[in-house]
Every structure is written in C-alpha cells, then in structure tokens.
Amino acid sequence: MGAGLCAEDLDLSPRVGAVEIYGARKVPVRKIRAVLGVTDGSPLPPSKEGLEEKLDKISGVVASRLEASCCVDGRSILYVGIEEKGSPHFEYRPSPDGDITLPKEITDLYSDFLSAVDKSVRAGQTGESLNPGYSLMQDSAARQDQLAFIPLVKTYLETVHRVVRTSHDADQRSIAAYLLQYGPRSLKTNGEIVDDLQYALRDGDDSVRANAIRSLTAMYVGSKLHPEQKLSIQPTWFVELLNSIVWSDRHNAAVALVDMTEGDSQDTLELIRERALPSVVEMARWHDLSKALPPFILAGRLAGLSKKEIDDAWVNPEGRETVLKAALKSKRHKSDTANLFR
Q1: pTM attached to this predicted model
Q2: Which domains does the chain have, with CATH numbers?
C-alpha cells in the first residue's frame, strides 16, 4: 500500500475566490491585475503591505488598500481599493495622543459582550433589532450585556465622550464609539452623542469608523420610530465614505445609507448621486451578492424605482445591469462613469 499524504504535502493556504477592484476609473484594470499577480484560485497574497507598495507605484495611483473578506464558494474575496490622482479623497483624522481610558468595568463588560457575540455567530443567531435606537441582539447573553451598557454609559458619559475624541488607544476609541448609542436620550445629550459619532466617522482607525457607523445607524433607525427624540443625523460623511479606499468603509456606509434613504430622502439620494454614484455602481457589481445588495438598492432608488421593481430586478442578472445603467443615466454629468463599462 502506498504512503498516504502528510499534512505537509497538502496546500491548505486560504484561496482567492474573486478579486474585486474598485476606485479604478482611469488606470487600466489589467495593469492592476498584472501587478497583483492574483487570480481566482490563487493563494491569498502573503504580504499585504508589499503588494500595496507595488500598486502605489503604478502611474496615476495615489494609494491602494487590500482587504480579504469571506466568501465566494468557501474562498476569500480580495478587495483592492485604488485611489487615483484627482479622484474623491476621504481625509482621515490624525490619531489623538490623550491618555484617558474607559473604566475597567466598562471594558470588562465589552469583552464579555464580544465573547457572547462570537458564540451567537457560531450558533447562527445573528439577528438584532435597532428599533429602540440602539442595538439589541437576538442572542440572550449578548442582549443582556447590551442592556447593561445603558446604566454604565449614563454614569460615565463624560469619560466616554472624551475617550472617543482624545484617547491615543484605538481600541478604547472603538469601544467608546460603540457604547455611545446606549447613552441617555435628551435634547442636550442627543446632540453631543451625534457630534461625537460624526467626529469618529473620520477617525484614522477602521474599527472606530465601523463602530461609529453602527451606532449612528441604530440611532437613526430609532429616531424614525421615536420622533420625540428630535435626533438630527446628517448623511454627509456616510456618503463620502462610499468613496473611501477602505472596503469596510464603503460596505458599512452603503448598509447605513439603505436605512437613511427609505421614505422621503430625496436630499440624501441627490447627495449620493452627485458625490458617489460611480462608487455605488461598481459596488453593486461585486461577486458576493450579500455585499452587492445594499449598493444595488441605493442604485435602484437613484434610478427612481419602487421597492418591487428593485426586488424583481435583483433576482435577474440582466435586470440588475439595466438598473445600474438607469442609475448612471440619472446623473446629469456622466463623464466620470464611462470607464465602468470597460
């Protein structure tokens, strides 16, 4: 009997299921792919920073960003963000240098919460409600921790305010950005909390921005059900994040803007049309349909379609492309969009 395969003989490295390049409007995609040297089925690149340095040397490229996410047919998706000369640029704030930190009882509870969320995800319990104006998970252990945030944030609100703006520790700022959605609701605190979270949308750390988006989205959803809170959340930075070089910025902002463009939202849709329409369209063409759906919904709304028309088009690949072309035609000045059809 022949010898069996040893573990060393098997290539178990993560594989690429799709490569999504976004932000490239003038630089030929073939040049980017040639530098990447990665195709469907290739192992994930061993050096993210090394590839980004090579991409940055392409003529016309100002900066690049690589991120891997799950999944197409069990393989990773490699998202490749390109910022070109003259393209929309999202400016992040420099890292603050303050020494302030959150109380240990808050960070310990947040750690327990993350553990509960991890267990719930493994168990397939990922549902949550934003109706109260803050996240409440379907999983009972995670929800119990979230409810415990409410009195703690009320007690330490001033510290949470200062941490999200001034702490040098990005993990601390990220926790603070998540916790602010659980802050007390009053005309005074509402404005302060929203200001802090809008400020955090331009933080230099990805996780801080992601948690700020989560908190603001929950507060926005809750404000529609509780108009007495008189919350005012502007879409400006969400729309600008659609042009970010960072994949998670774009995805999280698109998800938030789906909530923010329901109902009477023509001003927000017009802002998206003027500032980020090409980005919305290229995101709606991503292979991972769960990631493509939020920007596709935005594109359908930009095209003036009803929910039923958007839903019907989504289940038909040819219908999807018709919607995207209609969205592009909805912009009076379409000079920046022609390269999307190459």
Answers
A1: 0.87
A2: 13-84 (3.10.20.310), 92-233 (no CATH), 236-247+261-342 (no CATH)
